[in-house]
Write a structure and sequence with these properties.
Elements lengths: L2 H14 L2 H8 L3 H15 L4 E3 L4 E3 L1 H25 L7 E7 L1 H18 L3 E7 L6 H4 L3 E6 L6 E15 L1 H7 L12 E5 L7 E5 L5 E5 L1 E6 L2 H9 L4 E5 L4 H6 L3 E2 L5 E2 L1 E9 L6 H14 L1
Parallel strand pairs: 3-4, 3-5, 7-10, 7-11
Antiparallel strand pairs: 1-2, 5-14, 6-11, 6-12, 6-14, 8-9, 8-13
Helix pairs in contact: 1-2, 1-3, 1-4, 2-3
Length: 294
């Protein structure tokens, strides 16, 4: 083991919280991670982690070592990129996390083009609607639709998409068209439980007045695609991000409602750790996202 490998291993263990997860990030076995950590500790003459059968805890010496080597590793990566020159291709594994529906319908079809542009990259795309810890899970870039509140991350806004209030023609034929926000009280609504607003739907009328409607709902689901399907099949009125229902609106499977009101907008963000140096592979992907979705 050379010193650089030892440093990278310590950083991976600290950020992922386990030898197993660190091994997955570094593409090495748990046993080799343990060996490298032991060798670093032997060289330093200090224990970096307290180990037990149930948990792994960083020591004060371990935290101090991590804090000191992290900027060194960033400077090393920056140096290697500078020496390679601006014409050098990004390379390595790029781990991306994206929402399931957006990832399947919008991002996945573009990855072949991205890989063709950067053939030395390998993509690990992880689709999930849950909020992830980037450092712990070893993710390089998170694509998110919604808000960003983590101060230790950089969030580059790519675009913004309004929410659309909509329902199927079948539902409207049975229940009528609401003419005002207040009439939503009389309708069955489908709630996307990923939304922080939950059943409290905010909107702004044509006079600029803010209104919050506490909708009646028999169905709540944590998937935008499921909300879409339920609405298309007559399950009620839904509030869905416009980019996810373009086809349904174009074909008339869903009908926009209360268009005189302004609905919320969700931002499309590319998020990456707040560090001084941003790797070429991350910069390449964020620029690609901006080119395709801005």
């Amino acid at each position: 083991m050379d010193t650089l490998d030892g440093m990278k291993t310590v950083v991976a263990v600290v950020e992922t919280g386990s030898f197993t997860a660190a091994g997955e990030r570094l593409n090495m076995s748990k046993a080799l991670v343990s060996k490298y950590i032991g060798e670093v500790e032997e060289k330093l003459g200090a224990r970096l982690f307290n180990r037990s059968t149930r948990r792994l805890a960083i020591t004060e010496a371990g935290q101090n070592y991590y804090d000191r080597i992290l900027p060194l590793l960033e400077e090393y990566s920056e140096l290697m990129d500078d020496m390679a020159g601006e014409q050098a291709m990004p390379k390595g594994i790029l781990r991306i996390s994206a929402p399931v529906t957006f990832g399947e319908s919008h991002l996945s079809p573009l990855l072949a083009e991205f890989i063709a542009m950067y053939p030395q990259l390998t993509i690990d795309l992880q689709l999930t609607d849950r909020k992830i810890d980037m450092l712990q899970e070893g993710v390089d870039v998170v694509v998110r639709i919604g808000g960003v509140d983590e101060s230790n991350l950089i969030a580059r806004q790519i675009n913004s998409y309004p929410l659309v209030l909509c329902a199927s023609p079948e539902y409207l034929a049975r229940n009528g068209y609401p003419q005002s926000a207040e009439e939503l009280y009389q309708h069955t609504c489908i709630v996307d439980s990923n939304f922080r607003v939950g059943r409290h739907w905010p909107m702004v009328d044509e006079h600029g007045n803010s209104v919050i409607i506490d909708v009646a709902s028999k169905i709540a689901v944590n998937s935008p695609r499921a909300v879409n399907e339920i609405a298309v099949h007559g399950g009620g009125i839904a509030l869905i991000t416009s980019t996810l229902i373009e086809k349904e609106l174009a074909t008339g499977k869903l009908v926009p409602l209360l268009t005189q009101y302004k609905m919320m907008e969700f931002g499309l963000f590319a998020i990456y750790p707040h560090r001084r140096y941003v790797s070429k592979k991350v910069r390449a992907f964020v620029d690609f996202m901006y080119e395709k979705f801005a």
